[in-house]
Each structure stands twice: as C-alpha cells, then as structure tokens.
C-alpha cells in the first residue's frame, strides 16, 4: 500500500489508495450470495453499488484456490473472499511540518516529542487529533504506522482517544508490553490526567497559575477529593438494541481540585481513574455536572449527540433502568437516528462522491472536533520502576 501524505490548512491528509485483503467467510454468511452479505452486513453502500464493484472485479471468491463466479455462487465454509477497496482516510490534526516529521533526533521522532527512549519502551507526548493505532477508517494516519515508517515497530500499552493528548507508552517487545499491562491490570499503575472543565469544581481555589509543588502533591488530602463511582457502558449505534449497548461495568475515578479560573468560570482538575473504561473520565465528569469544556460528545453546550449524552446521564446502569424493553428500544432508536443525522451533516456536498469508487466524500473535520482538554500527564507504579511525566499542555 504505497501512500503519500501532505499537509493543508493544519490537517495531515493521506491521498486515497487501494487496499486488498482477504477473509474466510463467517458462519452466518454460509449459503448466501456475496452481494447479499455485503448489503446486509456492511450497509455502507447500496446494493447497486456492490453489484457494480463486483462487476469491476473488486470482489473475488475462491474455493480450494479455484476462482468462482461471485454473482451466483452461494458461500460455503472455507471459502475466501478477497476485497479490493479504495480507501479514503480522514485527515488528522497536523502536529508538525513534514520537514520536522522527517528529521529524527534525540528529542523527537516523526515529529513526536520523546519523553523516554530505551531498548524496551518508546514513550512520547501524544499530540491531539491523531489515532494511536489503525482503527475504523484510519490506517496510515496513525501514530504506530507513522513510527513504523521511521524504523520503530512498537505497540501501545494502553489506549488513548484520538482527541486526547499526553503520555503514550509504546512497547518495543512483547515482554515489555506485558510488564506494563500486568501492572495496569493489577491496578499497580497510577495514571494522572489533567482536564479543563466547565464550572467551579468542588474545593478549587481561585487563580490562573499553580506551582509544580502543587502538582507533586496531588491526591494528598482525601478531604478535598471528589469520587465518581458509577458504571460505564459503550453505545454502538451501528448495531440494534440491545446489541448496541455493552454490559455496564464498574468504574471509579478520583478527582482532585487544582485551580478555578474565574474569568471563564472553568477549572483545572486532576483525574485519577482506578479502572480503564472507554471514555470513563469524560463520562464521570459529565455526570458530576462538570464536563470538559470542549467535549463534543459529553458537554451539553457543544455536543451533537444530545440523545446519547442524556441517556448516559439518566441511566448509569442501563440494565437496571425503570424503562421497559420497548421504551429502551425507542430511546436507542433515537440515538441511531441522531447518529445518522450527524453523519449526513458531515458529508461534503461540494465534492459529492469519489469518481473512482463512488463513495460519498466527507467534509474535513473542524479543528475544535480534533482537540479535547484532557491530557495524560503522569504514569508511575507504586515502587517507581516506571515513572513518566510530560510537560503541561498550553490550556492548563
């Protein structure tokens, strides 16, 4: 997959490219023509689109290494489907210019600020607006793939959202990754995040600055901490109810006040998650009534997903909600409809569809959608075998 990156208007783009991959058929596909599977399983395009792509040879079917007629052959166990797709990766936020990205030294690699680099780990200060590893529509526009182009084959020891900045520990071998992950699993790794939230957080003092001494003594006074202890679950609008709601799992975050900023009525808060659920800090802050100021999902002032947010706030443990199954299904359908409406708004009407593959082109994301005032500031274990810290983000 030969790709080319370029930068424009603060965004890093990957020129569209073709990608070919093969998969064995799944059990639920057996007995169906491929076009039926594509139309019902993936739903990204119309049936006519898939028929056209099959006619162009972009989908192939083999059984015992013998090519079959994709249009008429029902799928069987052991069949291999090969798909050639035209990939349109969304742009990510530019973290440096291409010249700096291509000039590695002791302080930066691929333009990423190095916190520590040894034979076991590469620890970087992750910029906002770029995914850590291939996921969804992103592949080449991810940190691990960009580092691979710079001779660093590494794997992340934990997950950071695309919009989150801060400490990212990348392992250079399986043993190093296991050591970190075992400590995280045993809750022997202290993770301190910084967030800028709306409103005056409990016990914050007024001022615009704070000292390093304050940061070194976080969580020393239990009397001024705020504890959020409510379950977290994920919502997947691509699925139907109840499959689109994951099981509610225990989640606990401790918050420590740092400073109230009176000119904007915002606060800087330290966050210490004791569990590792998806969007845990963001959801807990929203439920407490102090959402991150620029959170485009969980802040009522700027969210495009008000139904999803309200559901999360109303039902901390959806399985135990007072709603009937029919009522829950209706609420979930509202979330699905909302997600479809947001996606429609993101379509780029000026460009229409790709002339090469027919996919609807998406508008570029707004810069505000690529940055979140949440920063992974410090990671350390109890005996300080691992002890990493970044510089403070500008917004803090």
Backbone shape? globular
CATH architecture grouping of the domain at 17-87? Roll
Rounded Rg: 23 Å
Between the first and last Cα atoms, what is the distance in angstroms? 40 Å
Largest sheet: 11 strands, mixed
Ranges where pLDDT stays below 50 over 5 or more residues in a row are: none
Mean pLDDT: 91
CATH superfamily of the domain at 17-87: RNA-binding S4 domain
Tally of DSSP helical segments:
9
Structural class: alpha+beta
CATH class of the domain at 17-87: Alpha Beta
CATH domain topology of the domain at 17-87: Structural Genomics Hypothetical 15.5 Kd Protein In mrcA-pckA Intergenic Region, Chain A
Strand percentage:
25-35%
Give the helix proportion (percent range). Answer: 10-25%
GO molecular function: pseudouridine synthase activity; RNA binding
Protein name: Similar to Saccharomyces cerevisiae YGR169C PUS6 tRNA:pseudouridine synthase, catalyzes the conversion of uridine to pseudouridine at position 31 in cytoplasmic and mitochondrial tRNAs
Domain Pseudouridine synthase RsuA/RluA-like: 121-286
Any overview of this molecule?
Helices cover 21% and strands 25% of the residues. The radius of gyration is 23 Å and the shape is globular. The chain has a domain at 17-87: Roll (Structural Genomics Hypothetical 15.5 Kd Protein In mrcA-pckA Intergenic Region, Chain A), CATH 3.10.290.10. The longest helix has 22 residues, at 325-346. With 396 residues, it is of the alpha+beta class.
């Amino acid at each position: 997959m030969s790709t080319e990156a370029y930068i424009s208007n603060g965004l890093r783009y990957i020129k569209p490219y073709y990608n070919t991959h093969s998969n064995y058929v799944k059990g639920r596909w057996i007995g169906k023509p491929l076009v039926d599977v594509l139309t019902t399983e993936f739903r990204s395009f119309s049936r006519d689109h898939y028929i056209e792509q099959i006619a162009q040879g972009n989908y192939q079917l083999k059984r015992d290494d013998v090519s079959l007629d994709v249009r008429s052959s029902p799928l069987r166990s052991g069949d291999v489907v090969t798909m050639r797709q035209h990939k349109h990766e969304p742009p990510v936020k530019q973290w440096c210019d291409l010249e700096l990205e291509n000039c590695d030294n002791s302080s930066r690699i691929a333009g990423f600020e190095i916190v520590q680099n040894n034979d076991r780990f590469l620890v970087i200060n992750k910029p906002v607006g770029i995914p850590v590893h291939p996921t969804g529509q992103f592949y080449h526009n991810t940190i691990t793939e960009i580092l691979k182009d710079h001779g660093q084959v590494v794997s992340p020891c934990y997950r950071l959202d695309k919009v989150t900045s801060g400490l990212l520990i990348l392992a250079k071998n399986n043993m190093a990754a296991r050591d970190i992950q075992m400590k995280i699993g045993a809750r022997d790794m202290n993770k301190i995040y910084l967030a800028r939230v709306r409103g005056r957080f409990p016990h914050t003092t007024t001022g615009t600055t704070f000292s390093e001494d304050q940061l070194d003594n976080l969580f020393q006074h239990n009397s001024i901490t705020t504890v959020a202890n409510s379950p977290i679950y994920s919502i997947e609008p691509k699925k139907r109810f109840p499959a689109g709601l994951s099981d509610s799992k225990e989640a606990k975050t401790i918050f420590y006040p740092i400073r109230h900023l009176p000119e904007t009525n915002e606060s800087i808060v330290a966050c210490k998650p004791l569990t590792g659920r998806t969007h845990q800090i963001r959801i807990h802050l929203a439920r407490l009534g102090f959402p991150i100021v620029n959170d485009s999902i969980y802040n009522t002032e700027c969210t495009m997903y008000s139904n999803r947010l309200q559901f999360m706030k109303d039902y901390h443990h959806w399985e135990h909600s007072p709603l009937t199954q029919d009522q829950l299904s209706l609420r979930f359908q509202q979330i699905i409809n909302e997600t479809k409406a947001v996606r429609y708004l993101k379509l780029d009407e000026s460009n229409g569809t790709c002339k090469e593959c027919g996919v609807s082109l998406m508008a570029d994301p707004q810069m505000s959608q690529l940055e979140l005032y949440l920063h992974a500031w410090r990671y350390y274990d109890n005996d300080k075998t691992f002890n990493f810290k970044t510089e403070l983000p500008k917004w803090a």
